UniProtKB/TrEMBL annotation:
<dbReference type="Pfam" id="PF04727">
    <property type="entry name" value="ELMO_CED12"/>
</dbReference>
<feature type="domain" description="ELMO">
    <location>
        <begin position="172"/>
        <end position="326"/>
    </location>
</feature>
<dbReference type="InterPro" id="IPR006816">
    <property type="entry name" value="ELMO_dom"/>
</dbReference>
<dbReference type="InterPro" id="IPR050868">
    <property type="entry name" value="ELMO_domain-containing"/>
</dbReference>
<protein>
    <submittedName>
        <fullName>ELMO domain containing 3</fullName>
    </submittedName>
</protein>
Length: 383
């Protein structure tokens, strides 16, 4: 005999209903006490809980519901639950990181580049820009301080990664792409490394590798950094929402690549040297500068009602202001993230970003910092 599920019920009611249903085939009926409703879970290891039919039934309805704004607490809980599914019940250790479908952290991806031979790519970098004449004298007298000697190897690693392209045959590269896709979309399933779904995220084509000009794999590492922290993930999803506005749409990932280019140029022009020297780190400063610049762009885009036709000039103005006052920009990011931690940070506020379906990125005329006329763009973007 099957019981009719109640329309309104607490979680204990739901557990009790599904437990009775599961024992109706011959098992003894449940006790009246609430604690007896949990007997079905006794003897089940933590790693097997998510495969239990009761929990699957309880979560099936919740998976179809999407809140308008996801709190950092929900994102953190989701990350903890995802960690459970990568534990082997027989050993209690994490599954091999070489298995497909597993997320990759920023630190793990960075460690990969720290351990492989990048000598052929390192030969191509130019750590600082060359200045001559009055420009060199002005920079010497009034420019930012030089980067400390002990930090230059870390700076060179950042610039070397920017010389590396995306290799779809490298498992680590594939995991970075999969992680970015899953975190931005909320999908639990792997996706193809080539396909229209990348256009939905704001690449201009079906192959993300074709959009990394001037930023290389560093552009993907920056996206990975953005989505693997619960606070910056909330920011990334808000910017993605803005990029799909029916009037103000822009290609999200392609815009991110351009922000990475600005960060690279700021590093080469020594605009970040003072902050790097203060923190005695390079990579965290570059990452934060990237995130802060992206946040600033989204704020300008939303409040000044920019559209895709403004993209090149917005990026150029953003580059100039970011390089001029990087510390102020970083403070803005700190304030925003502090508000997110308290549940108060909101980039879009109550702005409605819904409307007619935004066109694919390939249908948008996007002007990046590399595409501006030569008289409006400084430097050659040689990394």
């Amino acid at each position: 005999m099957r019981l009719q599920a109640p329309n309104r019920h607490s979680i204990h009611d739901r557990v009790r209903y599904y437990q009775v249903e599961s024992v109706s085939a011959g098992s003894s009926p449940p006790c009246d006490k609430d604690s007896s409703a949990l007997l079905a879970f006794r003897g089940i290891s933590i790693s097997e809980l998510k495969n239990h039919s009761v929990l699957q039934a309880l979560t099936a309805e919740a998976n179809a519901w999407e809140p308008r704004v996801v709190s950092t607490e929900v994102l953190q809980a989701q990350e903890e639950w995802e960690a459970v599914e990568s534990i082997h019940p027989e050993t209690g250790s994490r599954a091999s990181m070489d298995q497909p479908g597993q997320l990759i952290s920023f630190s793990e991806a960075l460690q990969h580049f720290q351990t492989v031979d990048l000598s052929s790519f390192k030969k191509r970098i130019q750590p600082t820009i060359r200045r001559t004449g009055l420009a060199a004298l002005r920079h010497y007298l009034f420019g930012p301080p030089k980067l400390h000697q002990g930090l230059r190897e870390e700076r060179d690693l950042v610039l070397t990664i920017a010389q590396c392209g995306l290799d779809s045959q490298d498992p680590m590269h594939g995991r970075v792409l999969q992680t970015i896709y899953k975190k931005l979309t909320g999908s639990k399933f792997d996706c193809a490394l080539h396909g229209d779904h990348w256009e939905d995220l704001g690449f201009q084509g079906t192959n993300p590798a074709t959009d990394l000009r001037g930023a290389g794999f560093l552009a993907l590492l920056h996206l990975l950094y953005l989505v693997m922290d619960s606070k910056t993930l909330l920011m990334a999803r808000e910017i993605l929402r803005l990029s799909r506005h029916h009037i103000q749409q822009f290609p999200f990932c392609l815009m991110s690549v351009n922000i990475t280019r600005i960060a690279i140029q700021a590093l080469r022009e020594e605009c970040l040297s003072r902050e790097c020297n203060r923190q005695q780190k390079v990579i965290p400063v570059v990452n934060s500068f990237y995130a802060a610049t992206f946040l600033r762009l989204a704020h300008v885009w939303r409040t000044q009602h920019k559209t895709i036709s403004d993209s090149g000039f917005v990026l150029k103005d953003l580059e100039m202001s970011a390089k001029k006052s990087p510390r102020r920009l970083l403070k803005t990011l700190e304030t925003y993230l502090a508000g997110v931690s308290k549940g108060q940070g909101s980039l879009l506020g109550t702005q409605k970003c819904s409307g007619p379906q935004a066109p694919h990125s390939k249908d948008l005329t996007f002007t990046g910092v590399c595409d501006l006329p030569s008289h409006l763009s400084e430097g050659t973007w040689l990394i």
